[in-house]
Fold each of these.
Amino acid sequence: MLELEARAEPSRLMSWASPLLAVALMLAGGLAVFAALGKDPVEGFRVFFLNPVKDLYALSELLLKATPLMLCAIGLAIGFRANVWNIGAEGQFMLGAVAATGVALYFGDSESALVLPAMVLAGAAGGAAWAAIPALLRTRFNANEILVSLMLVYVAQLFVSWLVFGPWKDPDGFNFPQTRMFAEAATLPMVIEGTRLHFGFAIALAALVAGYAFMNRSHAGFRMRVAGEAVDAARYAGFSATRMIWVGLLLGGAAAGLAGMGEVAGPMGQLTDKVASGYGFAAIIVAFVGRLNAFGILLASLLMALLYIGGEQAQQYLNLPNSISMVFQGMLLFFLLGADVFIHYRLRLRRRGA
Amino acid sequence: MPILPPLTPPQPSAAAPARLVLQGIGKVYPTVVANDDIGLTVRAGEIRAILGENGAGKSTLMKIIYGVTRPSSGRMFWEGEEVQVESPAHARSLGIGMVFQHFSLFETLTVVENVALALPGKPALDALAQRIVEVSARYGLPVDPRRHIHALSVGERQRVEIVRCLLQDPRLLIMDEPTSVLTPQAVRKLFETLRRLADEGCSILYISHKLDEIRELCHTATVLRGGRVTGECIPAQETPASMARLMIGKELPRCEHDAPQAGGEVRLRLAGLSHASDDPFGTDLRDLHLDVHAGEIVGIAGVSGNGQQELLRVISGEEPLAERFPVQICGVEAGRLSPGRRRRLGMAFVPEERLGRGAVPTMSLADNALLTAAHNQGLVTAGFLRFERARAFARRCIDDFNVKCGGPAAAAKSLSGGNLQKFIVGREILQAPRLLVCAQPTWGVDVGAAAFIRQQIIDLRNRGCAVLVISEELDELFEICDRIAVIAKGRLSPVRAAGDTSIEDIGVWMSGLWPGAGDTADAPLAMETPHA
């Protein structure tokens, strides 16, 4: 008879092996799905997982896709470490995009070098402002930040729709729900010429480094980790729970807002009602697959980007619906949660009646 | 405390088998051998002490007998028959009852409802209430079956637990450290009850580390150390020192305590402190006055649940007040300050819960040093952590306070309770506080470590620090304190010099009956001491 036995202490090895195990199981599950759909599993694997990394351009697309994911995820991880459950990065992402778009539209055709920095600040501020709502409601009225931040995603989506169908609609845009294209000065420069990989990727890498320094090296990050591990100890030490909620939500919101800014000022070049496309939610998976750790998040965001692009490739070459990438995301999180059990437990063979 | 009549050990009858026999019981956990080859025999009507320090394996052994955990090896015989106890329900059906150290009662239910939950089937509440009244009258354990648990004192709750066991007519009753929540008077009542039970043929396994109690109550004692039986004895024929030798393997250390310096400045003043508890089952603090001077140790005694938790939170700043003046720390009106700000005024604080409050279980000792010493010891510069300094400070705590551990990188939860307590006390004392507030400094700590911690507190006081100790162990308070007060029902008694009072007086005060106690002094007790 197999039984789970509690480990004396959590296994370090397992806490890193668990995401790898989850990836392996996801691959196996994916092959089974391909086979069940009547596709050649080997061909499916090649299209889904190898096409996205086959050349420099494909790689640049992968990094482009990973950029908003790592930004959102590193911001969320800071809050998650302190048990501040911001589920609404998707909405903060959209508000960051809206704020940056506002700046871009305001400056119009200006060629000032200050437009982009202003958009960066506006993006971060917009996301932070949206996250400030659950922070305020949580600290003032003890409203659950999970529910509030999640519900605000839908408010944000409707707000974006109203803008692009209404006041911000491009007058020359054939009635499509989108703003004008941004001017040159309001568009992020490219990191690699000939690709779409924009400067937001560098911002995301910098955010990962900053997130690492904050979480692992700073006293403020230490206080947040203590709050996440043991609430009473944080209270005993005198770390303010209110401040922790604010810092966790505002940093998460600012990072998501930056990611939103990067999308409108990068590959899109305008605001549309499809701006967020699930990055804010996928980032929750990225944060946990990455063990709420900066380096882990780097790897996990690349993996998640691979799933997105692999899904598009599968749609294109295998005639599979695009939701196949959601299936892979779901399997990844499912297997991860399952594998995580073995961080705290081990399997043991036990004879019946012993 | 008056001694009970001399013990008459039960006469072992040759015909009847022993009630409980354990042979070669072992229990191995992944990292520790909790029990190793333990043998134990309990006869009918025998009160046997299980004596040992924390971590000696007492609780594991009791859990095995009560069916909570299963042994890795060994055999158990119940009244001559070999048994394997599958679960606590199985144990109860055999006739084994257990009263846990931490009560398992639902606060929002009444006494009779709680008792009914533990019984098989669905007993009629009226008939059950009648039986509760009968049993409680017979054993001198007055309990009103219709009252809600949350309205009961801790001693009354313990009575409910005992009555609940007795209703099932146990033939073996296991009591796990039952006196830690009782006043000396209540302890005497409990002992009378246990004696009566034993006289009727019920066997009792009595777990404790309090040597005086065991000498007074128990026929026989089995001593455990490091998971093994290190000796058996007849407590009445031993001295506390000789039993301590069996228990810790060496002489019981004593603290050196000289007279306090007089005339130190006031470091902590409670000036008419009142505070309503947020917790509906908490205790409201009512008009507390207290001065703690530099160079003295003031103790606050009391039965747990009389406002100690609330008082500590208000002093530490974990529960800030609306007003400034009721708590004054080193001359500053600090009622509204955060714990961090109070620490910067020179206060250090040792909470009663070690894991999860005094230390973060999953974090290393170096990280736990950062918890309270970050600013005082310069472990943070410009908002960034100085890991090498944190490790060095943790190393000092470990070396100076003889903390047995794997070094500054060891996780807090990997330490035994006593060693973690030494670390936390060390962390607070090495910050050279001007005021130390200490809750239950030696709760659950073994005898050797407890004496060490007490000595460190006394040495700190000799260096001119003001110390406030809140403890439920009267012996401890009388050993280290210069002055003693009592907290009861959220009120504070007058403060007495420890030499001018006695454990018996303080015991009476612990039920709220001190001179001038006003509405709580309803019992006719002669009190000659004038109102202070």
Amino acid sequence: MTRNSAQWHQKPNFPNSHFVDTRIYTDDVLFREEQEKIFNKVWVIACHESEVPNIHDYRTFNHPGGAKLIVTRGEDNKVRSFYNICPHRGNTLLYDPVGNAKRITCIFHAWSFDTKGNCIDISRGKAGYQDRYGCDDAGLREVRAEIGFGGFVWVNVDDNASSLADYIGPAMELLGPNLNEPLEVFHYHKAVVDTNYKLWHDTNSEFYHDYMHYFNRATGMMQPGYFDRKYTGYPNGHASVGSMSIKYDAYEGSQARAVGWPGLAPGGWVLIDLFPGMTYNLRTSVLRMDTAIPLGPNKLLIEFRGLGLKSDTPEQRAERIRDHNTIWGPFGRNLHEDLLGVYGQGVAMNTGTDSKWVIHGREENSTIHDEIGMRHFYAEWSRRMERPAFDPYGDNKIGKLERAA
Amino acid sequence: MAHLEADVRTAVAEAVYRASMALDAKEFGAFFALCDDSFHYLITAHSPEIRKDMTWLEHDRKGLETLIVNLPKHNSDHSPITRHVTVYTVEVAADGASAKVVSALQVFRTTLDGGVTELFAVGKMYDTVKITEAGPKLAHRRIHLDTRMLGIGYHVPF
């Protein structure tokens, strides 16, 4: 039975925790508010420590809250982060995505900084500023940085935020035994897609869309244990999905993943979604890390990393790369399908399309096709935004949250 | 002799062009007919971010054929792509049994409604071609992409 306009806009017949208003994916005001209330308050991954392996190595990073950042390794081997902006005339300090710089010198007027963020030279400073202004006034803005949970470099632009460990809480315990060895990034690429960052995180937070992936149907859904995988929610909006044994050779052209991973059972697959847009995805031989960096309400940049062990032999590394590319490379079977899916959502729900609701209503005892992962995310989103995701502007007039996810 | 070598160079270049035309038309049988049994295919790129060369796709002939056969089972972007290839150099080996070919590659993607054609990727194509009695056959192809942001990606090799 089709629906007319009134029926289309009518509140879905679910508790308010089980659907969201699609304006949360398209509205520019809400997006700016998300940058302030969410991204500028939480820990996010800027890069991996293996991307700044040597003293003076640096990496630039566009923080999802809007700030441009530098991550650099100092003479004391400590990794720090600063705004990538000269305090003089606001020019970009470092243009390249990566490099090695003992001194960071602005190309504009040659103001110079060390890897601790101290200003060490203002060209003709005394002549121009006399005693009114000097290097002590011109240090870089430092951003909190910590290395953790597999050697990733985490940053937080909120000086008053709690520690990284407090933010993550117990959410990473499932992967704890798997991240004891030093890791190394062997794959990196970015994708810009016309979609909302939450839709990408949703895709990483629900497995019901395995119907979209022939590879996952053949190697996972058709195999024992698939429907036993369970979601666990943690404080701060994080969630995990337990493991099963994937039968990789059930897909023609794929093969059993022999190289494995420390502490992970053969064929194992553990996934952890960290609020608001990071996902650890350990599939047997490869750790994939997604970092969602929203560029606008319907514009998303995603950084994709593939990691192996730093101790890999060339043969082991080659196997991990092959396993990664089969499904997760830019030409991989699954990644393209996932991106096609969220791109289609971005098109269908964009402003002016008369989209209204997205439903997260599946309840299956928190098992793999239950949509509790998304409900858990939106409960945290609503708390931080001080707006319910089902009624962000209070004009749907459908009451308060009826039941916590 | 010079004109014979020129003929070989022309035939090799034409094989590279025909291979691209076959892939554009998704006539995969015609493409594989231009490939040797030992055909090996790679797509590579360099990431300054992680300071590493990367392999994004690698298959032998059988693996590539399987990938193509599996395509209908997958959900794919069906926007057509057009490969614009310019053969830069053809270096025929001294024994005349093979040639190394360097070509420029530009890949354009056209939206499903035909409304917009955009440059999808640029790179270079490094081919090794066997020169056989049945004509030139692709033995090895490495596509090195300068473009590292491919949006939602693509299921069909370039």
